[in-house]
């Protein structure tokens, strides 16, 4: 299983970034996908999730600013997070997570993270 995030970087407040997570090694199309983040000195915070059905959820602090999407094509299984109107408090390492259910067991897979820094 591989989850490889990309798209992080330094952006000014009010700016935008688009994170991507390239997925392989598991059944992406039937897995729940999500983004979580960890700010400096803080715990892990769930940000957004998208189920195989297409149902989407966001934490209140990013609603209206972030948009999650997924591309289920076998050759380009990707998860995206479009982040607009970024704020300094969005600064964190962003992680991609997959949750795959096989029979009665559930497996969680994580990427290595990508740094997002919002500042001048």
Structural class: mainly beta
N-to-C SSE string, H for helix and E for strand = EEEEEEEEEEE
Strand content: over 45%
Number of distinct beta strands:
11
Spans of at least 5 consecutive residues whose pLDDT stays below 50 are: none
Q: What about the largest sheet?
A: 7 strands, mixed
As a percent range, the share of helical residues equals under 10%
User: CA-to-CA gap between the ends?
Assistant: 37 Å
Shape: elongated
Calculate Rg over CA atoms. 14 Å
- Average pLDDT over all residues: 96
Please report the number of helical segments.
Answer: 0
What does this structure look like?
This protein has 120 residues and is mostly beta strands. Helices cover 0% and strands 56% of the residues. The chain contains no helices and eleven strands. The strands form two sheets. Strands 2, 4, 5, 6, 9, 10 and 11 form a seven-stranded mixed sheet that branches. The protein has a four-stranded antiparallel sheet with strand order 1-3-8-7, with no helix packed on it. The radius of gyration is 14 Å and the shape is elongated. The mean pLDDT is 96.
């Amino acid at each position: 299983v591989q989850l490889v995030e990309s798209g992080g970087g330094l952006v000014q407040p009010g700016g935008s970034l688009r994170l991507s997570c390239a997925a392989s090694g598991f059944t992406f199309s039937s897995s729940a996908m999500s983004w979580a983040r960890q700010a400096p000195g803080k715990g892990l915070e769930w940000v957004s999730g998208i189920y195989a059905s297409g149902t989407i959820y966001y934490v209140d602090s990013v609603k209206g600013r972030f948009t999650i999407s997924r591309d289920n094509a076998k050759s380009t299984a990707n998860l995206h997070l479009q982040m607009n109107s970024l704020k300094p408090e969005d600064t964190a390492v962003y992680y991609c997570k997959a949750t795959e259910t096989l029979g009665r067991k559930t497996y969680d897979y994580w990427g290595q993270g990508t740094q997002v820094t919002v500042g001048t």
